[in-house]
Amino acid sequence: MKAKAETKGKPQIVNTLLLAVATALLIAGVGAYYWFQDLAITPIRVVGLIAVAALASFIAAQADSGAAFFRFIKEADIERRKVVWPTHQETLQTSLMVIIVIILISLFLAAVDWLLGAAVRAMVGG
Predict the structure, then answer these.
(1) pLDDT for 64-102, tens place per residue?
(2) Rounded CA separation 102/98 (Å)
(3) Domain spans in the chain, listed from the N-terminal domain onward
């Protein structure tokens, strides 16, 4: 017997409808932003677009997939706050070591190139 696992979220049609309404609202907001470019000054249009985007985000967050997306964003922010950033001195020391290693590897590769070039010239008779 194959039985579908019961989902605890909203019905799929509700999720689809919520996401469709949010998408349509966002598209209408962007369209209105450009439609009213001659009638309203830019700061008013930007505030209107931000308000429409916030409303569309709120509507999308009511769907199961939207809620999961915003939960992911929240958890990512929590993880970002746990990062221990290096001090100025650690950054300077690390950068200096990278520059020194790059210079040393460049000199080594230049020496190998010169030696191989000399060997090929000696074999060819140049």
Answers:
(1) 888 888 899 999 999 999 999 899 999 999 999 999 999
(2) 6
(3) 10-83, 85-126
